[in-house]
Amino acid sequence: MKTLILYKSKYGSSKQYAQWLNSEINSDIFELDKCPDLSNYNLIILGGGSYFGKINGSDFISKNWNVLKTKKIILFSTSGAKPQDPLIKNLYEDSIPAEIRAYVRYFPLDGACAYERLTWTHKILSFIGSMFQSDPVKKNEMRQGFDRVKKENINPIVEYVKNIVFAD
Whole-prediction pTM value? Predict the structure, then answer.
């Protein structure tokens, strides 16, 4: 099965996961804006961070659905919210149209926030958001940053891909 990994990464978490996946799965890897011809691939893995309530790059699926609907699709996202947080389900549902979601396997992954690397706009938004946060740990993370990006977080995706390959 010919596999393509695409990613859109603003601060590096999605890129890191894409690179780790590439090291575990026989695949080609590209930044989303350098996407090759999709017709050469059976499985497309797309990853992006969450920004302003959407998964970065997720509109690529809708825009290219005529080509993608004949392929297996995996989407992963990175976020400051934990993967089991109910906000993540909303993020996915707001990013992918309902009629397409049934054909996409989604994996939310832990992200990172290197506060010192944020743009001024993102720093201001993060600080303002922290003022409304009652959880002291989350408040501190929004003001200082955090890193929960770990290679083992990709294990469910790798296992899923192995099951797809052996099923075909």
Answer: 0.89
